[in-house]
């Protein structure tokens, strides 16, 4: 089943697979705000104090960061320009097939986006949902007449009981940039644990040829894999930075961990008329 609903007063689509797995995605930003695997519980964290609606970037769920990650690019807007714009639901491509619910949202450049970034593009976000798995794919087509270069990420916020009791495995030996102290290191512990603020970019850590990352929490183990998004960002603000974020309760920082499939270190260039895609797959 695929149906139009409202989430926090905003237009959204709810996908329900035949086995009961479900997900909800806002049209605003193509922002996934809920995923409940079949017979399971909510897996994404959304801040109870975040804003919703035009001009707002929702904190939590899965924000789509494109065509730049953070401020690593020429655009003045953090994490690009698509996460706070109205996408369109593609009813023709969205369906329940072969036991899975499939949802597709699209966004095309317009005068407002070209005023910030003079580039023609078509963006498509596809969700494939069934059982204990969720695939999220971002596809970009260059509809302009010049080459298009970009970075980006699927900025997933995973719900945990206490990040200090969570473990993330699969990054042993991977080089990373610790942006908190602006130093490069190599991961020496696996699985890794968390105390306080963490903000790291692991270079060339994910991909079809890599082993899944394993996030272990009170809810069990989740496998996280990626294709076309080679870098992995691991982020939690810790208590001090959380206190400075107006859209996050001070006491909520232990309740999530961001493990993001990202394209940061080596930007992609797409020729006119050509396409690129990146995917994050989750399994519990």
Verbal overview:
- This protein has 284 residues and is mainly beta.
- The chain has a single domain, classed as Beta-galactosidase, Chain A, domain 5, CATH 2.70.98.10.
- Helices cover 4% and strands 45% of the residues.
- It is built from two helices and 21 strands.
- It has helices spanning 111-116, 238-243; strands at 2-7, 10-16, 22-26, 32-36, 64-65, 88-89, 95-97, 100-108, 121-130, 133-142, 148-154, 157-159, 167-169, 175-178, 183-186, 198-202, 213-217, 220-227, 231-236, 256-270, 275-283.
- Strands 6, 7, 8, 9, 10, 13, 17, 18 and 21 form a nine-stranded antiparallel sheet that branches.
- A hairpin with a 2-residue loop joins strand 17 and strand 18.
- The protein is globular and about 45 Å long.
- The protein starts with a strand and ends with a strand.
- The relative contact order is 0.17.
- This is Putative glucose-6-phosphate 1-epimerase.
Tell me the helix content: under 10%
What composes the largest sheet? 9 strands, antiparallel
Q: What share of the residues does DSSP label as strand, in percent?
A: over 45%
Using the coordinates above, name the CATH class.
Mainly Beta
Give a count of the beta strands, DSSP E runs of length 2 or more. 21
Topology order in helix (H) and strand (E) letters? EEEEEEEEHEEEEEEEEEEEHEE
Q: Assign the CATH architecture.
A: Distorted Sandwich
Q: Structural class of the secondary structure composition?
A: mainly beta
Shape: globular
Number of domains: 1
Stretches where pLDDT is under 50 for at least 5 consecutive residues are none
EC number: 5.1.3.15
Catalytic activity: alpha-D-glucose 6-phosphate = beta-D-glucose 6-phosphate
Keywords: Isomerase
Pfam families: Aldose_epim (PF01263)
């Amino acid at each position: 089943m695929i149906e139009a609903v409202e989430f926090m007063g905003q237009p959204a689509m709810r996908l329900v697979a035949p086995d009961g797995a479900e997900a909800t995605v806002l049209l605003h930003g193509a922002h996934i705000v809920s995923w409940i695997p079949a017979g399971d519980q909510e897996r994404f964290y959304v801040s109870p104090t975040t804003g919703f609606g035009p001009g707002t970037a929702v904190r939590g769920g899965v924000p789509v960061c494109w065509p730049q990650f953070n401020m690593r690019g020429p655009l003045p807007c953090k994490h690009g320009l698509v996460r706070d714009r109205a996408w369109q639901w593609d009813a023709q491509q969205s369906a329940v097939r072969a036991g899975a619910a499939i949802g597709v949202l699209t966004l095309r450049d317009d005068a407002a986006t070209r005023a910030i970034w003079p580039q023609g593009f078509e963006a498509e976000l596809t969700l494939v949902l069934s059982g204990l798995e969720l695939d999220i794919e971002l596809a970009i087509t260059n509809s302009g007449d010049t080459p298009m270069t970009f970075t980006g990420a699927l900025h997933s916020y995973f719900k945990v009981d206490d990040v200090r009791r969570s473990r993330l495995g699969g990054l042993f030996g991977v080089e990373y940039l610790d942006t908190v102290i602006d130093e490069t290191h190599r991961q020496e512990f696996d699985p890794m644990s968390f105390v306080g603020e963490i903000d790291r970019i692991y270079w060339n850590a994910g991909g079809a040829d890599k082993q899944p990352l394993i996030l272990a929490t009170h809810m069990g183990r989740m496998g996280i894999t990626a294709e076309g998004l080679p870098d992995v960002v691991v982020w939690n603000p810790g208590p001090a930075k959380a206190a400075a974020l107006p859209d996050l309760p001070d006491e909520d920082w232990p309740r999530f961990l961001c493990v993001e499939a990202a394209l940061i270190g080596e930007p992609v260039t797409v020729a006119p008329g050509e396409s690129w895609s990146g995917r994050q797959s989750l399994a519990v």
